[in-house]
Design goal:
mainly beta, 119 residues, 11 strands
């Protein structure tokens, strides 16, 4: 009932920028938080940035000062502005939405978008 469509990934040179977008649609009544995660081969999915509906933002230490998360509540869309990209940022990035579900939360995930930082 809920779909997340990601866009904006691709190939960029070191020091360059990308902006990832994720639009959520479907049966969305109340969003607890939206965020971006990465998953490197052989490792668990890790939080990159999150933006709770209650305010504030959270970032992984590795991206502080370089990445900025934002959202357009009217469009149910979350963005990740990625600046000063490094080769180490190369991986697949996944959009996530936490929805209120009964007394708890339910997660929905985007399909993933590849970010490659290389000369």
């Amino acid at each position: 009932q809920v779909q997340l469509v990601e866009s904006g990934g691709g190939l960029v040179q070191p020091g360059g920028s990308l902006r990832l977008s994720c639009a959520a649609s479907g049966s969305i009544f109340s969003i607890y938080a939206m965020g971006w995660y990465l998953q490197a081969p052989g490792k668990q999915r890790e939080l990159v940035a999150a933006i709770p509906s209650g305010g504030g933002t959270n970032y992984a230490d590795s991206v502080k000062g370089r990445f900025t998360i934002s959202r357009d509540n009217a469009k149910n869309t979350v963005y990740l502005q990625m600046n000063s990209l490094k080769p180490e940022d190369t991986t697949v990035y996944y959009c996530n939405v936490h929805l209120y579900y009964g007394l708890g939360l339910k997660d929905y995930w985007g399909q993933g978008t590849q970010v490659t930082v290389s000369s």
